[in-house]
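Exercise: predict the fold of this chain.
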Amino acid sequence: MWHGGGRNAQCSQVQVDELKCLAFLFMELRGTHGTTRSRAEKIQELGFRASPGIKGTGVYFWRDNALSGDLARDWYRYYLKKELYAKDSNKQCAVIFGLIACDETNFVNLDDSEIKDDILWLIKNKGLEGDRKGKIYDEYLDMLSRELGNSIKVSQVSVPVPKEFRNFPSFLYMMADCYVVKDVDCVQVETVKYY
């Protein structure tokens, strides 16, 4: 609790330390999500909806960097080519720029070596493989949430770049970082660009 008021407001050292701790634990991440104009408008009106994916259930955002807009557009092209937008009334490309906010205790980097070892243990001992790939990550995050006593809302993972990707330096790597947002309340649409 702050003591005093106005210009001369002060707080105790304990309160300062608590505030620093709270600020340290809060994360703001940014990413891009490629889709159609129809879907982007629906997302702006109703919000995101989590769905199953290769690295678990959630909404996938390319981690903000110099190529994240290109990745989102090329993901859109990949889905368009697979005719997964066939029923959309407006198939124009839309890239959603999102702000993902969560407590640091609700975030995990699934590319950490020890976590990969845990996931490999699940695959070996529970027979989770093949078309159940995404379920491996869901099960691991559920297990981790129970173990930690709090829910994992956002994970970071490496995923293959879209086959349509034109600008990616493939000589460096064929994977890119994504945020998988399980709790869609963590996402705020900052802006949408149409192409």
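Check your answer against the key: The chain has five helices and seven strands.
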